[in-house]
Amino acid sequence: MVIFNEGRQILQQNWRLNDEASVFMAELHAIKMAISNIRDLSIKKAKIVTDSRSVLQALNNPSNTNPSVLGLKELLRYAPSIEFIWTTAHIGVAGNESADIHAKLGTERPIIDSYYSRPLSLLKSLLLTENLGTWQQLWSTSLKSRDVFQLCPMINLRRIHANFFINQVITGHGAIAKHQARFFGANPDCSCGTAIEDRDHIILHCPQWAEIRKIFPPQLR
């Protein structure tokens, strides 16, 4: 953070936040400290120039319940007349470039000056990443469903296409005689009378589906 008065830089400060603090929280902290300095220096009228559009949007959002945003709004109630100005980052604005330099210096400080808790969004992201990693490890080492593993070796939450019957065919579950026999004691034999009805039999061998099988791509016949 830097403060200019009549084009002359009169104050510069930097801080180090804990590693868990987001960029958004760092921008909030810088504006909070700027307001505190404006008050301490008895500056009657000031303009705060920032390249953080997200912070300005948060301050203008009456529904925002972030405790740090609410704290900054409360501080502004008792601050001198302050005008916020947004500027594009890295376009050569002297004050903004100087602020970026001091922000970088702050990350190199040996001590942490302020602590902020991890935002809920970050915690959710970390939990999701950890759970996906555990799921992938279990899926890769399991002895079950290795045929499905050949089709889908990597865990992915992106839904490509949802179809009840395709899911039954891929997994071998549902209204397939072998699956019904395993769980409900039904007859596992296919109605064609030539073999047990499982997924591979239906797709590749059952004579009842020979005509339909002709429309399969050559690599699947």
Automatic annotation (TrEMBL):
The organism's place on the tree of life at top rank: Eukaryota
CDD domains, per database record: Rnase_HI_RT_non_LTR
Residue span, RNase H type-1 domain: 1-108
Single GO molecular function: RNA-DNA hybrid ribonuclease activity
InterPro entries: RNaseH-like_sf, RNaseH_domain, RNaseH_sf
PROSITE patterns documented for this protein: RNASE_H_1 (PS50879)
A Pfam family this chain is assigned to: RNase_H
Name of the protein in question: RNase H type-1 domain-containing protein
Source organism phylogeny: Eukaryota, Metazoa, Ecdysozoa, Arthropoda, Chelicerata
This protein's encoding gene: R1A1-elementORF2_373
